[in-house]
Design brief:
Helix content: 40-55%
CATH topology of the largest domain: Rossmann fold
Strand order of the largest sheet: 3-2-1-4-6-7-9
Radius of gyration: 21 Å
Structural class: alpha/beta
Shape: globular
Oligomer: single chain
CATH superfamily of the largest domain: NAD(P)-binding Rossmann-like Domain
Order of helices and strands: EHEHEHEEHEHEHEHHEHH
Number of helices: 10
Largest sheet: 7 strands, parallel
Strand content: 5-15%
Mean pLDDT: 91
Length: 283
Amino acid sequence: MSKVWFVTGSSRGLGRHFVEAALSRGDRVAATARDTASLGDLAAAHGDRVLPLELDVTDKAAATAAVRRAHERFGRLDVVVNNAGYAQIGAIEELTEQELRDQMETNLFGAVWVVQAALPFLRAQGSGHIVQMSSAAGLVAMPLGGAYHASKWALEGLNEALAREVAGFGVKVTVVEPGGFATRSGRNPDPLANGHMARLNPAYDDLRRLLGEIAGGQPAGDPAAAARALLKIVDSPAPPLRVLFGQGFHPMIRQAYADRLKTWDDWQDLAAEAHGDTRDGVS
């Protein structure tokens, strides 16, 4: 049975490949972008199986209207992909309040508005799959990416809670955590070059140079292959809550989690001390 998709951030990158993969197998897609002109070729090629929608996900009312319009057009929603987002780059000291708020408005709140708009339809039909594009940056943190990490770590927790809230309604949730993908000119994107840059403080220039030397060192993934993998996930009767896309970051993440467990174990005596001795009424 063909599926109906609602995909944000469809103009380029992974979002564009997700839309193309779904359409190529006969599914129908509501594809959103800030500028629908970038979706004109899809509409020309696939006719009424694609619905281009203009959407800035930071606009809650617009997100609600776009989801409603997609449901009215296709009669149901099977897969909702929160893909829209960007990376704000800068040391914590360099970030302005507005840059941090803008990062959260797009990456976190934009995803929330789409989920809130879609859930009434998914609950009513007793099925659906919410796919949240996170990142390996939602699992481990690196210097100069604090704002981006904060948004992605927030999404990880939000969607884990969401998955437990909606499972009883027949709605599934999957958080996809990609590593580096060659979404620009066939190259692994350099976050220091392609992200939104904060105003630079010379105190962090050496760190920027160091990270610039190692940026793109991870193998670049093929976004078309990622799209094919996503099709398998949305077709699975028991999809994962979390899944890494790409190679290179898995060993790093395994080590990061092992280090966290070791630190908690090493400091467990102090953790117990912090709890206090409650024996004999002493606290």
